[in-house]
Amino acid sequence: MRDDRTNSGYTLVELVVVIATVGVLSVLGSSLFVSRSAFSPLLATQQLASATLLAQQAALAGNSAGTLTVEQTAESFRFTVGAGSPEARTFSVERAGTSLSGVALPLTLSFNSQGGVATGASTNLTFSGDSTYQTCVSSLGAVYSGGCLP
């Protein structure tokens, strides 16, 4: 009588090699995320774009929340849409070694009924930390990376 059963499964050596490999990759990969300050300028830039869009939508809808105020505290950046109105919303991003330059703070942008900046001027903002992100809020209310064109 012949036994056709084959051994299936993994050997102890194979399991140890896989566990060791996953451990090494975890240590190497986690070092990328140890310092949040490298991501803080990008997060602040993205939060600025989101808050600007919300303020524009409020202005287009004709309600009183058509302003955006940008502040820098010791711990965070604070973006307030519609400050002083019942519809006010505040968003915060941890600074983690990041600073904002290029404008006097607090910065308040008001949007008109067409969604553009009420003053008609573009605004350059630079978020700096382990990396630097320059952002432009154009006179039309668009937010994009890089400096504003003259």
Structure report:
The chain contains 2 helices and 8 strands. Helix content is 27%, strand content 27%. The radius of gyration is 25 Å and the shape is elongated. The strands form 2 sheets. Strands 3-2-1-5 form a 4-stranded antiparallel β-sheet, with helices on one face. The protein has a 4-stranded antiparallel β-sheet with strand order 4-6-7-8, covered by helices on one side. The protein is of the alpha+beta class and 150 residues long. A hairpin with a 5-residue loop joins strand 7 and strand 8. The chain has helices at 12-30, 40-61; strands at residues 67-72, 76-81, 89-94, 99-101, 107-110, 123-128, 132-137, 143-145. The N and C termini lie far apart (89 Å). The longest helix is centred in the middle third of the chain and has 22 residues, at 40-61.
In short:
The protein is α+β, with helices and mostly antiparallel strands and 150 residues long. The protein has helices spanning 12-30, 40-61; strands spanning 67-72, 76-81, 89-94, 99-101, 107-110, 123-128, 132-137, 143-145. InterPro entries: N_methyl_site, Pilin-like.
Gyration radius from CA atoms, angstroms: 25 Å
Output mean pLDDT.
Answer: 85
Order of helices and strands: HHEEEEEEEE
Q: Hey, roughly how much beta strand do the residues contain?
A: 25-35%
Strand order of the largest sheet: 3-2-1-5
Low-pLDDT residue intervals, each spanning 5 or more residues: none
Note the total helix count.
Answer: 2
User: Kindly, what is the distance between the CA atoms of the first and last residues, rounded to a whole number of angstroms?
Assistant: 89 Å
Helix content: 25-40%
User: Strand pairing plus helix content: what structural class?
Assistant: alpha+beta
Envelope shape: elongated
- By DSSP, the count of extended strands is 8
Main β-sheet, in a few words? 4 strands, antiparallel
Keywords: Membrane, Transmembrane, Transmembrane helix
Protein name: Type II secretion system protein
Transmembrane segments: 12-34
